[in-house]
User: Fold these one by one.
Assistant:
Number 1:
Amino acid sequence: MTLVRLAGYVLGVAFWVLTAFYALLTSQDFIYQQFLRPELVPPLAWFARSWPAVTTAIGVLWFVPRGTPSSRPHFTTWLTTIAWAVAAIAGWSGYALASLVPGSVALWCAVAAMLMLVPIAIAERPDARASFGETRPHTAADFWACLLAALVVASIDAAIGLPNSGLESVAGVWLVVRGPLLAAMLTFLVITLVRATGGFFSQPVLAEARGTVITLGVLFAWFIARVLLPSISISGWEATAAAYLAGIALASAITVRSGARLGHHDDGVASVLDSLAPRMAGRVWGFAAWCVVIGAFALVVNVVTQVADWNAVGARLGILIIWVLALGGARRVVRLPGDGEPAVFLGFALIVLGVHVGVERFAAPVGVRAETPAARWASDLLAPVSNDSAALYDFLPRHTNIPSTREVAPVAVEWSVLSGAPAAERPDIFVFVVDSLRRDYLSPYNPAVTFTPALGAFARDNLVFARAFTQYGATGLSVPSIWIGGPLLHKQYVVPFAPMNALARLLTHEQYDEWISMDNILEVILPVTPAQAPLDARRPVRDFRMCGTLDEIRGRLRERPAGGAPVFAYSLPQDLHVSVITREGARAVDQEAYEGFYAPVASRVRRFDACFGAFIDDLKARGTYDQSIVIVTSDHGDSLGEEGRMGHAYTLYPEVVRVPLLVHVPPAMRARYSWDVTRPAYTTDLTPTLYRLLGHEPVLPQPFFGESLAGLPGQPRSAPRDRMIAASYGSVYGALLKGGTALYVADAIQRREMAFRIGDGPAPGDVLAVDSALRRDGSEVIRTTVEAIARQYQFSPLPR
Amino acid sequence: MSTAGARLAGALVVLAIYYWTLAGGAAAPVQNADEAQRQQDIQTSLALFNTNRFAEALAPTEHLVAQSPSQAIYHERLAVIFQKLDRPADEVREWEAFMAATPTPIDACPMVAEAYRRIGREDLALAAFERCAGLQPANPDFLVFLGQALLRADRKAEARAAFERGLAIDASYPDLHLLLGIRQFDNGEQREARVSFERFLALAPERRGEVAVWLKRTERLR
């Protein structure tokens, strides 16, 4: 029965934490629209769908060993049971997790789910209030336990980061060690504080225990408030308060079972920390085994987060868990009697700090970067925040991820007055926006690529824009911005979207047949017209594949009657999306070697390259190639291991913001315009380009919009403008300066800034030092553009 | 350090030093004084402008323009401030700077031309209206402004051509019918003028008062 009781407890806590997590994700429009609704993470979708059944099953498992008369249920057991039963009944009545929609209700549901941990924890308290032992000094044990935990964490971190950990140099060793060392000293100081404070209470052991639980809760709350919530654009005092409630509830739930040991223990701190490691960790061999378990866990976290993570939240959560587990084990195994000399330990803590400051000020490791997961996090935490950018960091989040509950009226985006009959020359238009395709994975951009012969051949005869950028990192805003031809309010989405959808209006006016893969974004932004014949109609978005879509287009072209309306085909193939690759096992789809490339991506690029080649051959055989516009680009790139980073959640690294842009224009049409493929090009330039090519002279609707890639012959083009770019899902903004050769990034989530040099070669970019001129120009472009967008939509952020 | 109080004090002091060093002033660079002033100006200028406190917004906005002469957005804001403060000469200067800096100079239309008029420079106002009409040739609003400016310059034939061009773009623009009708009437084309006035009335029946006198004058042609 004890095992069933334990299982019910563990599953109950995990269930409510997962419920809170799902509700938290649902509360945010962009996560709901881009990830939950399209069910990109099937286990999470299953959990939401099965929530009533899971609630009931785990509720019963939790209740049975506690609620029977023989178990003498505690009052809070009944309270928890009633709350749990209400949740289950609500779930079966249609108010289940899956029915939540973005907004504050979902957010409060998340808080409520976390608060369920409180009665669960209270119900777990031992009934007996035994007399507590007397406290004895433990300073020496605390100090050495913290140092031992730091040693374990640093060793695991270095082992995982090999061979790139930088341990071959003293500077590299310092970068790996300094984070755990500083964290160990902070932990020791806080424990000392908790013990000293406990001494003022009548029951010091109990006070120490409670203080330790609260301290753990604060640590969890800090993580929730500083790492988790900002990464999904939740901030403000309510978020901070909710984070503290959740953190303390979680700490209580995790450690409450250790309360049973208080009655025969003289150490409230250790009794709580003991609950974080198994009893065997109290012996040397057991501690060694525990370290192996922690190491294995770290390895799994590293492997998983290398493939799929969200702005390093998963990796950092892993580091936090490793720290807590290592501290629990270390505190069990270190059994030093006595107090030592507390002043010496406090002095040592100061020496560690002094060494850190000294190295940073006078011997900063030049050219050595943190290459291990924990060291990278420590570097981010310890990086000084530039006060010059502080105002920008406060400004940006107020204009980012504007919730759907905030009503904003649509505005008209008019590139040209569309009147009269359709154009005399209306080529078929094929637009392939390959989700997450990097430019340096295509041979036209990188001579080392040998696996894209078809795209290479296509590029030889056509326009290859060498310096092309996405307007938005990640799909959520990138795709709408393509259809508008410019940036938009950071909201998913201003509806109805039709007044802004300039490309859709052009297609309607020109009477195109629209063959479009209707993904979850286009379902919102694209007005339904009788001309639409969706591609990939029976496939969920996650199963959109370039080859399948191209086959469908080729089939339709074969059956198309001669002299019919021209075709506009558009698709957002998901072959390379991180969620697809993860779901497919993060493996290559063939047996070829892809040295220097990430094989799961490269092999899929090879696969669709072959299909693309067949499609182009088909157009040529049909004799329509030279009456067609074919565009291959992507909505953003992807990080594929650069300095340990993966994905594109909301970073604006060069490999994310640079995209391929290959364009075929009918020869006669191409000859009528001037083309400068070295000029910076943006995905938002496509719509004005199509306006011009179809005979509608585009007039810039706003100064920050795109521009036609097709120049008017004989008219010199103005110098390229500095342009703002942004992440779709968070307040990370960038500015492309100096003709697209420099990228300044202001990350208002982590409150840091970066800069990169954008070169002509295959490498996406190199790190640049942020000097005052770059900061000034970059932040000015960002701020003024964000302000101008707000003005366009008559949007004012709410006062804080 | 044997009592709880001494331990508490010791731990607190060291923690405070840690906090000050890692999160506070010691590790962070000192803010550049000019940059601090600029950030202050950016926020103050926008806040005062948005609350219509134009006189107070003037100084910080002028600082911004001086520091960032290539930023069109600050020239535009300053131009509007001068307009509200009735300083048309300064307004003209800022609109011209704005038009030079922005990729969408049309955003200064027709305010730049109106500002020239307020300083008594009809010739420059006409040139500005011509620029506006050239920037957006398909916008009938600017043809109305241009036509009226041409009339003031006594270039009646060109004014009439502007009105006719506007009507070719948008035949449902009532003012263009009225203005063209007056030109036709002055030119002795009373029957055509009558037709224009009636079109105006059909499109804007609530504005009968504006056309009543002209309808009366051409009544016998019904």
Number 2:
Amino acid sequence: MLRFSTSKIVGTLAIVLIGLLLAVPSMLTREQRDGLKASVPGWVPSWLVPTRAIVLGLDLQGGSHVLLEVDMPDLMRAQTVQLRDDVRRVLRETSVSPEGGIQTLPRGVQLRVSDPNARARLLPKLRELSQPISNAILGQTGARTLDLNEQPDGPIQLVFTDQGVNERVRRAVDQAIEVLRRRIDALGTTEPSIQRQGADRILVQVPGLQDPQRLKEILGKTAKLEFRMLAEPGSSDADLLPSRDANGQRVPVERRVMVEGGDLTDAQPGFDSRTSEPIVNFRFNLRGAQRFGQATTENVGRPMAIVLDNEVISSPRILQPITGGSGQISGRFTVQQANDLAVLLRAGALPAKLTIVEERTVGPGLGRDSIEAGKMATLVATALVVAFMFATYGLFGLFANIALLIHVGLIFGLMSVLEATLTLPGIAGIVLTIGTAVDSNVLIYERIREEAHAGRSIVSAIQAGFERAFATIIDSNSTMAIAALILFFLGSGPVRGFAVVFVLGILTTVITAVTMTRMMIALWYRWARPKALPF
Amino acid sequence: MRLLRLWPDGTKFDFMRFRRLSFPFSALLSIATIVVFLTMGLNFGVDFKGGTLMELQAKSAQADVAKVRQTANSFGFGEVEVQEFGNAGGVSLRFPVQPGGEAAQSAVVQKTREAFGADYTFSRVETVGPRVSGELVQSGTIGVILSVLAVMLYLWFRFEQELALGAIIGTLHDIVLALGFFVITRHEFNMTSIAAILTIVGYSLNETVVVFDRTRELMRRYKSIPTEELLNLSINSTMSRTVMTATAAFLSLLALVLFGGRAIEGFAQVMLCGVVICTYSAIFISTPVLIYIGLRVGARDPTKRAALPQAAE
């Protein structure tokens, strides 16, 4: 057992060396890493150069973590409106007029048609509105988006199925992620992360942000832009919407939407040439330009309503037909507001309202302080434990200390390869493992002492010490590992960072405390041929 | 060089006698904990209660706490807890969860930023809506229960039933006292606290398992030794290791308490206290409790013995 073959020694050292080298990129800044990558001669294969590094968590780096949730009632309302328009189109195509119009239900629409001929014409067309849902894994699932319920003399109901609702939520989240990505990219921040979480949530993480409030404003706006006409007071086919021109008072606006924000190809902030008020200049695509031209031609002299997220932001009078496909929006903006609106319009509207359900922001100053404090605590903890081990076990303590330092290095190496996130609780985890990693060494050394006191020779005591302590080391580390693994699977963010460090720490401690120390003791024994234990 | 020895070799201390002291002491402490737990309750943070926590840093390094309190309470967002921290103008504000669902929470942050943005920088903002906090409570509870179950399962397979039961009693004792520490110190109880509790579960078992491994080994060696003597021998022969490990863990956590910064202070203090509780309970609770559980010396399950590596003679 105390015989270590040369190949085994070389192998162990090689593994340790590789592990420590992997940690190197994490000690460098991004520029230094890129410089290192560039300075490697071409004949060295790129996989030989370690480039992966530990990612600092938002609590250390400073930044915002925002969890958004699709507003289900809002999404269903939008879907129902869409469905109502589809049904209306079908009715027009089949020239059927239902008694009492189309009623909206919480998850669908209903209508009454008692003429059997009209019903027979209408029903197959309505059925076509329901689409099959395909699944990336299973292909066609047989489920459809809508259920059509009808009794011979009752109402016809078109209701979204559960699968249909889920499908819409899934699509809405996909679309929203795309839109949010375009919006955040426009902010010019580095490495934002936008991920789906669960069925109806999106997690946005943006490191190192100066103005988190602005991020939230940009994330939370639906940015649904509509060009409509102001309606005559008392008109039946109108919505009452708050108006910025009327200081928030509600004004009637025609339900019919002439052109939507989706038909915009570009939007840029600018200034009005006469009033030098901040405005947003926009340009329509071909379809939008045609519709806008037609609508403005028909309504010369009447006030238009530019509606953003159900608020009339301005209601200019149409002085002449606008056929050029471009125009401007004014709305008593500040420069920043005009800027943000342009960003939002370029990125497109969200498919539904998103609600912020969780926000965690750490300022860059606090993050820096935390890193400094963490470094300090780690250094002091290491110094205390190293001194304590050396004072107790002398030379063997030195072996344990070397193993301990390698252990910490290996945790960093493994975290770098995994590109794991280091959080503040993660630093606490490192400090804690410094204290607990020596446990394995202590178990072994105390056992060696005991065996020596029981009258064994030095070699035999060392051998027995390692062998008998091993089962205990496995048992005690397993119980720790179980707790840490559960923490990993249940925790999120910072807490998961703690679990990662702890699990990795338990893995490497077995390598360093058992294999490394045994090797050092074996080499020492071969070299010194001691007559007594040094402790 | 004279080396440090915290615990002398070859002690024959009668640890089991102390159960007449430690059992009533721990029972009393546990009951007291449960009483304060039920009456005072945990100081739940925004993770579990919902609401908004903000940390402000005065730009002039001098915070006017009274004014902040007055202004914050005038917002109409319910009662705001305002506390000063550090000595360079730090103020923390805690708003209760606002009625009106998830969307209602953002207004708090916006209003506070507008009111204090000129004189303070915002070093931390945490807003958790009612639904997310509910989910965090759920996953935190599941985490603690699941880890206790998983560890029980491991002990069941790896150790004799009596030993497993003793370890579980010790661990539950440690969880209860750690919770008591949270109640008494009024440390905020949040997701990181769950991490602390789970780490204490791991550490507690670690301590107990080391003693029990020895108990099991001694049981094989001395077939007809009285239980009390067996347990005393187990503790005495592992005591030097227990003291060493506890000291090392204590030292590293002490460094964390003293230098780790305010954000991790609570976690570090709980863990530091946990190390003391776990070391105590391994010696004075989970081991002596085996006397009452009835450790049957002699009649052992032969299959479990085979799992142990045989010592090389």
Number 3:
Amino acid sequence: MTVKAENLEALMKLSLDGDQRAYALLLQETARLLRPFLTKRLNAGCEVDDLLQEILLSIHKARHTYDGERPYLPWAYAIAKFRLQDHWRAHYADHLHHAVELSEVENDLAEPVTESAISYESISGEVQKLPPKQAAILQMIHQEGYTAKEVAEKIGMKESAVKVAAHRAYKILRKILER
Amino acid sequence: MANIEDLIESLARDAAPVKPAPHPLTLSLTWVAGAALYLVLSLWLSGLRPDLLQKLHQPWFLAEAAALALLFIATALSAAVLAFPDLHQMRKTAWAPAGLFALFIAIVVFAWRADLPPAPLPAHSFECTVSITLFSLLPAAWTFFSMRKFASTHYRWAGCVALLSAFSVGALWLRLHESTDSIVHVIQWHYLPMLGIGLIGWWLGKTLLKW
């Protein structure tokens, strides 16, 4: 069921008066409208769901700042954009935190990461201890035989990012195996 | 998707009646009235400058005080608008202080050029900045405390404008209290510190108004 935009204001007014059914309907409609907005801007589906939940919580927290007199959608989208920017900020900060110097990996970028002297089976136990993304990449490359490019396409990352993740995983494995 | 449904259900269960926040005009009017009362009380306690009546007949002094008062009102209104996630759909109002800042700077520059021969510099210097800052603490704390109850999506700007609003009341108080004729001193120790105050507000907004 879809609700006309002008009815969202009425639903919010009822919600502010404590009408739980109207509020549930309003949040459902808001989620339905925001999902394509977020899907366009984010890569992974799980990220969309997480952020959508965060936005709904923010709408709930800030609902007293809406009076039911002005259009609802600009208010809801303002909160959605705000949380999306927060998400990106955190995302890029995390990426920067885990960034690898280009000089550190430039030799590896040219090398075929799908070839290795050690068999995957002999170290699969250690691979499983790696962070899930790195473990999945190594598994796809060495067990399932995908190229870095194919892995990138499959998991929605850039090829260079897959190579960097693989490089990082090799570094960790090398340290473990050298012990 | 199931998680979203669960969340909606749980939020709807919590949906107790909520009193909508006041309109930004009402909110800013409360701040302006409160700060005006504080200004009058402070002037009553600290005393008006002895030559105030005479100074009010000087066009540049009058223009400067009026622009400062308008700046205070515009920043209070802008801070109230910025406290709402969608700026209460009054985006242009949020920008109101920009024009007044330009006007204020122009007036101060003209007052400076009209100060011929230049009035002698007073013996004191940074004490003025400290006095204005101390005076501004109470209105600033009140504004920030009120704004925390809202949901600003422009918290840095909101903090910056809120602190400038409080500082402009302080600057107005000192201008009406202290008998200083040197516009150079006033620019240097009363108005230029506003730039630093704006930056502190920017940081405070990020720290105190993030939700």
